TrEMBL record:
Segments forming domain Amine oxidase: 105-346
Keyword annotations from UniProtKB, A to Z: Coiled coil
Pfam families cross-referenced by the UniProt entry: Amino_oxidase, NAD_binding_8
PANTHER family in the record: RENALASE (PTHR23357:SF1)
Any one Gene Ontology cellular component term annotated for this protein: extracellular region
Protein name: Amine oxidase domain-containing protein
Key word Ribonucleoprotein present: no
InterPro entries: Amino_oxidase, FAD/NAD-bd_sf, RNLS
The organism's place on the tree of life at top rank: Eukaryota
Length: 351
């Protein structure tokens, strides 16, 4: 069986891994992503080639495991054993919520390395910079055809789409759009899925800067203290590395994101950069470069009503929607649970 997965984020990686475990070497997994790197919203950005060890986690910051959840705990333990994640040191942090049943982990090599590692375990073929715009039923056989704007790329027995629902509805044409249009219930439920918007600004410092003059590694900013900034981290220190090169990541508030949803990320990014220096006047100004990112679809504020982990649009050939739009929450742990449900369904249909 050949399966195409659209999206190279953590949901696609986890589904790939579970499919590999379920079906062994007999399954071929092919991934397409419009981005230039693996990770999706679990992404790590790097400074220029002159300062290659300076990086920031631009989207997800740390991964939270629920101790009492035996199912997801196994995934966390595997990543710990593989030296991909390690506990977040909560000394010198401000505003992280405490919960006796939760443990937080950081990824020392960058959060995108978690996704990369899971894909490697899954042995999936990766195709980047491929913006999928069409999924069609083949007229010749029982397969699905996947295309970009200018050409048909590949065909498979099954396609799993893991991109945020608003992007599915706005970007994907062909049989997939017709199926959604015909399925009134799914169509209405998909239209209910909503995401927040956030801007992220990363400051990369050259190795010559040996301190940022900041006493904390993570700071959740209270909305009464600043209306623009909501999350700040000295990113290398957050990842348990206190050596230069230093980097700082800032996320804006959801309210700020909503107000500027259609604005240019560079213009808004410059504005946010100034807000960072106003809020932290002691921060050195000698940065090496700056990363600006608009997460138009940041975290799910209203998920697919059933929170079922997936939606099956067609059984044969299998066409499934998955990802955090269908999960109980918009985070890594919920993506694990959603992926398990999706693969359980695929196994059931294939037996
Ligand atoms: C700012 C921010 C902070 C967060 N903080 C945390 C946190 O601290 N802890 C936590 O657990 N979670 C956090 N999250 C949420 C977490 O990142 C997501 O829940 C998770 O990464 C979702 O993964 P996914 O694979 O479902 O989707 P995505 O990661 O969005 O993957 C979808 C992929 O599809 C690709 N794609 C989209 N359209 C197309 C197309 N037409 N063709 C081809 N490819 C396409 C995208 O490029 C993307 O790579 C945060 C997210 C953001 C944005």
């Amino acid at each position: 069986m050949k399966v195409i997965l659209i999206g190279a984020g953590i949901s696609s990686a986890l589904i790939s891994l579970l499919l590999r475990r379920q079906f062994g070497p007999g399954i071929k997994l092919v991934v397409f992503d419009k981005g230039r790197s693996i990770g999706g919203r679990m992404t790590t950005s790097y400074d220029s080639e002159d300062n290659p060890h300076c990086s920031v986690d631009t989207g997800a910051q740390y991964l939270t495991s629920t101790k009492s959840n035996g199912v997801t705990a196994k995934f966390f333990q595997q990543l710990i054993d593989d030296h991909v994640i390690e506990p977040l040191d909560k000394t010198n942090t401000i505003g992280i919520r405490e919960n006796a049943d939760k443990v937080d982990y950081v990824a020392p090599r960058g959060i995108s390395f978690v996704v990369r590692h899971v894909f490697e375990q899954a042995v999936a073929e990766m195709n980047l910079s491929k913006h999928i715009t069409k999924i069609d039923f083949s007229s010749e056989n029982d397969k699905l055809l996947v295309s970009t704007n200018d050409r048909q790329l590949d065909e498979a027995d099954a396609v799993i789409v893991t991109i945020p629902v608003p992007q599915i509805l706005s970007q994907l044409k062909g049989s997939i759009a017709e199926l959604i249009d015909r399925n009134q219930e799914a169509k209405e439920k998909l239209a209910q899925v909503k995401y927040s918007t956030r801007f992220a600004v990363g400051l990369f410092y050259p190795p010559s800067i040996t301190t940022l003059n900041i006493p904390w590694r993570i700071y959740y900013v209270d909305k009464n203290d600043n209306e623009y900034l909501r999350f700040l981290a000295v990113d290398n220190a957050k990842r348990n590395n206190n050596e230069p090169p230093f980097s700082l990541i800032a996320h804006t508030s959801v309210e700020f994101g909503a107000k500027h949803i259609d604005d240019d990320k560079m213009i808004i990014g410059e504005e946010i950069k100034e807000k960072i220096f106003q809020f932290l006047p002691q921060l050195p100004r000698q940065i090496s470069s700056t990363k600006y990112h608009k997460w138009k679809y940041s975290q799910v504020t209203q998920s697919y009503p059933d929170k079922s982990g997936y939606v099956l649009l067609n059984e044969q050939p299998l066409l499934m929607l998955a990802g955090d739009s269908f999960a109980a929450e918009s985070n890594f742990e919920a993506c694990i649970e959603a992926a398990i449900e999706a693969v359980k369904k695929i196994r059931e249909l294939s037996s």
